[in-house]
Structure formats: C-alpha cells, structure tokens
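Hi Y.,

Following your request, here is the sequence exactly as I used it, all 89 residues.
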Amino acid sequence: MNKHIELVKKWLADPESVRLKELESNKNAAWTAWAADDDNAYWAAYRTAWAAYKAAQAAYRTAANADAHADHCKQKAIEAVREYGDLTK
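Below is the corresponding structure, written out as tokens. Let me know if you'd prefer a different format.
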C-alpha cells in the first residue's frame, strides 16, 4: 500500500494520531510523487492526501461552517482511499 494512503487511513481511524503538519507534508510529498510519475494511482494518492489535509485543516478553524467543510473533505478522503484501492487491485 502507498505510504501516503496509509497515513490518511491512520488519520481516518484516529484523527488525534496524526498532526496537521504531518498531513500537510504528506499532501506535498504525494504531489511530488505524482509529478515525478504521472500515474493514476499516484494521482489518487495525492487527492486522498489533499482531502485529508483539508478536512483536518477545517477542523482547526473556528468558523461556523468548518464542521460541514471538514465532514465534506473527510468524505472525499474516504472516497479517494477506495478509488486508490480500485486502481491498485
């Protein structure tokens, strides 16, 4: 399994187990991996890492709509993990 996906899965299982900075670094590293090898699986890994980072970032915001945004991004991360799994079967 892809290390970027694994970190997102860890975060999805326990949001307190992964810091926002780790998710940001994961997102950036996933982008770099995709840029180096234009492959659908790498693109899915980047989308997963990005959605997880945005969801965690929204959770730290104090705006009234942050919860809805965080939930939306978390759902996108879950969908992207599934997509990655389908691409790598």
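Residues 66-87 form the longest helix (22 residues).

Thanks again,
Q.
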